[in-house]
Amino acid sequence: MEAAAGHVRIGELSRRTGVSPELLRAWEHRYGLLRPMRSEGGFRLYSPQDERRVAAMRSHLERGLSAAEAARLTVDEEHAPAPPAETPALERSAGELRAALDALDEDASQSALDRLFSGFSIATVLEQVVLPYLRELGDRWERGGASVAQEHFASHVLRGRLLGLARGWDRGAGPRALLACMPGEQHDLGLIVFGLALHERGWRITFLGPDTPLDTLTDTAGTLRPDAVVLVAATPARFRTGRDALREIARAAPLWVAGAGATSGLAADTGARLLDVSPLAAAERVAADRRA
């Protein structure tokens, strides 16, 4: 087979992209990211398209995505380009939702959500609208640019809508995840987003919600023997008071800790694993760990 113009061997691809040959081979074999042709001598030759995929993969990894999620997005983006009108339509609907939530307008907020969920996938709305809005709202609240009323109202509206999407997420025959907030932790929006993303990957979800007592957590984990337990807290203190219970849960099922209060030290001390990425990337990490 003649080498096509622009094709290079893996050493040159490594030099151009700044990714080691070993990692390039891993991405090729694990995720099908690269699709080399073979030379007459049997050498793998990589195309300019392969080089573009590596660049996209690196960009997604730098945003904090897992390798599996970054590879999936890279391939999806290549084969399913968005129509030109999609981004402006998404931005327009996102702006309408933001304005309605800031104005404490329930009807307008629900109408904006209707348009978003009818026009775009759940993953797109969560990743490109809901999570960015929540981050931006939190930043504004810390700077005094948003009121407590606005923060509470937006959380109430979005939580109710997301839980509506979650109806039936316990059905199916896939692996089961037990999700809960540590005692005293009331903020569960990120955990709901995580659960929706994990359910999209075929998992069943048992959701215990905010402020779950430690004895309830240990008893439920022992009874269900789930394939993953994911616990969230915004402060380290909420995890510290439950270290013994966390160790017991980790003996019953794979345990993951998440939220601003989760640290690598806590994970090492309790036998848990740390989820220190966005809810959507965290869902892919848990799912990929199960597949491994």
Please tell me about this protein's structure.
This protein has 292 residues and is α/β, with parallel strands linked by helices. It folds into three domains: 10-79, Multidrug-efflux Transporter Regulator, Chain: A, Domain 2 (Orthogonal Bundle), CATH 1.10.1660; 86-165, Methyltransferase, Methionine Synthase (B12-binding Domains), Chain A, domain 1, CATH 1.10.1240.10; 176-291, Rossmann fold. Helix content is 60%, strand content 10%. The protein has helices at 10-17, 21-31, 48-62, 67-79, 86-102, 106-119, 122-143, 148-165, 189-200, 214-224, 236-240, 243-252, 264-270, 279-291; strands spanning 37-38, 44-45, 176-181, 204-209, 228-232, 255-258, 273-275. The strands form two sheets. Strands 4-3-5-6-7 form a five-stranded parallel beta sheet, sandwiched between helices. Strand 6 (255-258), helix 13 (264-270) and strand 7 form a beta-alpha-beta unit. Helix 5 runs antiparallel to helix 6 and helix 9 (189-200) packs across helix 14 (279-291). The model is unreliable at 81-85 (pLDDT under 50).
